[in-house]
Design a protein that fits this description.
This is Amidohydrolase family protein. The chain has about 500 residues and is an alpha/beta fold. It has helices at about 80-90, 100-115, 135-145, 175-180, 190-200, 225-235, 250-260, 265-270, 285-295, 305-310, 315-325, 340-355, 365-380, 415-420, 450-455, 460-475, 475-490; strands at about 1-10, 20-30, 30-35, 45-50, 55-60, 60-65, 120-125, 150-155, 210-215, 240-245, 275-280, 300, 325-330, 400, 425-430, 435-440, 440-445. The strands form 3 sheets. Strands 1, 2, 3, 4, 5, 14, 15, 16 and 17 form a 9-stranded mixed beta sheet that branches.
């Protein structure tokens, strides 16, 4: 059985210079786009879908997210990253999550992602105190059953967190610092051995929809041998190596304080850059950093909603584009942006940089942001040969939008209306790997009400744990707030018109 979508407006994104729709037919068989063109002749085995008054686009690729933040969605506000992490990534009071809870959490995240048109997630999963194979299998099982495409990580931090931020450790009571430093952390070889086992594990899931991803948390949070070893393994196995980089002014200062150079230069010098590397965020970069990234074929996942909520700064969009660095788009986690809906991110990226640069010629075009949310994310995920565009031979990750809704009335430039006018309510059908997984707003692969109820059953336990860990981690708040203030007022060679964090008022405990 094949699907034949007839007489639709199709945005293929195959042309880097255009996102204008074409009037085409589209045939899907065995998960692959097999035919594309006007006036395709129906075959006996075609299931025909009427594409009149419908827009067909590639599925969105969420190039950086954290499904494991699901319990914190909507909990915190008005804290910069380093303070927010105290509560969403608590240093004290964490216990391992059960595989059953992880499965419920992952299903909920995938449900909202699919229903908003996200067909691929780059899910940087962190478990505390560390991830085991049973926990990873729970994420893979959830994504396999629900039908989403995903890169799923083993996120790792192998340095004591109090030693990863400048001006913090000497401001924390010694007994608490000793407690944090006494926590057992994995070595580089242990993480790489775990990753080898994870590669074997993932083969049993997803019909090649699911892939393992190396994810050293950040250069200041991991040892040099782990960063270099993860990069080498990613290259050898054609995997993504996902690293947080220069999200905040504090991290800019960290490079100078810890390594005497910028963090991209440090990674280059230790052999931890390659075309398999994706940097999440990449805000506080200079021209030399951009040249290093371009020379090594690095991608960057831009996360404007999260960066705005955490006050992190504004990525230099046009400078990245001019340097030739591939840009994807991500929502970041459920606690730092409070949404997995990438269409909101595409709109935010289209708007934000219009106020970040006074030159209209430098502003993002709709074609650029749509491609960042599809093609760019696919490239950063090492999936550009499979997804991101609508072309013959690509896997069929496809969205269908109803053009009779108010969002597309009056009908003008459909690509512009998709970015600026659509809120997701016109999304009629979501196809992943040739399988219709969402139709008329309902998930077809699983019982979505059961997914919601299963997760909500954990809420009393979640709230009690969060209240307890919030109280425990208040001990770190003054030190982290002081570090943030110091770094915010440290002179920077990088010019920022907005969002540079230099005029924030002092932060005090309780601002959340």
């Amino acid at each position: 059985m094949s699907l034949l979508i007839r007489n639709a407006d199709v945005i293929t994104l195959a042309d880097p210079t255009s996102s204008a729709p074409e009037h085409l037919d589209l045939r899907i068989a065995d998960g692959v786009i097999t035919d594309l063109g006007p006036g395709l002749v129906p075959r006996d085995d075609d299931e025909i879908i009427d594409g009149r008054d419908r827009l067909v686009t590639p599925g969105f690729v969420n190039a950086h997210t954290h499904s494991w933040e699901a319990p914190f969605k909507g909990r915190y506000d008005n804290m910069p990253l380093e303070l927010w992490m105290l509560y969403s990534y608590p240093l004290l009071g964490s216990a391992p999550c059960s595989p059953d809870f992880i499965r419920a959490r992952s299903q909920l995240f995938a449900l909202e992602s699919l229903k908003s048109g996200v067909t691929t997630v780059v899910d940087d999963v962190l478990e505390t105190p560390t991830q085991d194979l049973e926990q990873l299998a729970a994420v893979l099982d959830a994504y396999d059953r629900i039908g989403i495409r995903a890169n799923v990580s083993g996120h790792v931090i192998n340095l004591p967190f109090v030693d990863t931020i400048p001006y913090v450790a000497d401001r924390i009571p010694g007994e608490v610092t000793d407690q944090i430093r006494a926590t057992a952390l994995v070595t580089a070889e242990e993480y790489l051995d775990y990753s080898r086992q994870a590669l074997n594990l993932v083969q049993g899931f997803g019909q090649d929809r699911l892939r393992y991803m190396l994810a050293p948390s950040a250069p200041q949070r991991c040892s040099a041998d782990l960063l270099a070893g993860a990069t080498e393994m990613a290259v050898r196995h054609d995997l993504e190596c996902h690293i947080h980089l220069l999200e905040t002014k504090t991290q800019l200062v960290t490079g100078t304080e810890f390594y005497g150079t910028s963090l991209p230069r440090y990674l280059r010098d230790i052999g931890a850059l390659s075309p398999h590397t994706t940097f999440a965020h990449g805000i506080w970069v200079d021209d030399d950093d951009l040249e290093i990234m371009a020379d090594h074929g690095v991608s960057v996942s831009h996360n404007p909603l999260s960066n705005l909520k955490l006050g992190s700064g504004v990525l230099p969009w046009r400078r990245y584009r001019e340097a030739g660095v591939n840009l994807g788009l991500g929502t970041d986690g459920w606690s730092s942006s409070d949404t997995p809906r990438l269409l909101e991110v595409i709109k935010a990226a289209s708007l934000l940089h219009k106020v970040a640069d006074p030159d209209p010629a430098a502003w993002p075009t709709v074609t650029e942001t749509l491609r960042a949310g599809t093609v760019g994310g696919a490239a950063s995920a090492r999936l550009a040969d499979r997804i991101g565009t609508i072309e013959v031979g690509k896997r069929a990750d496809v969205l269908m939008w109803d053009l009779t809704t108010l969002n597309f009335t009056p009908r003008q430039r459909l690509d512009h209306q998709l970015v600026y006018s659509e809120n997701g309510s016109s999304l009629e059908r979501v196809i992943v790997d040739g399988v219709v997984v969402v139709e008329q707003g309902r998930l077809l692969t699983m019982d979505e009400q059961q997914i919601v109820e299963e997760f909500n059953a954990y809420l009393p336990e979640i709230h009690a744990w969060q209240d307890r860990t919030d109280r425990l981690n208040q001990v770190f708040h003054p030190a982290f707030a002081a570090s943030y203030e110091t770094c915010s007022h440290t002179p920077s060679p990088i010019n920022r018109r907005i969002g540079d964090g230099s005029h924030h008022a002092p932060l005090h405990a309780g601002h959340r």
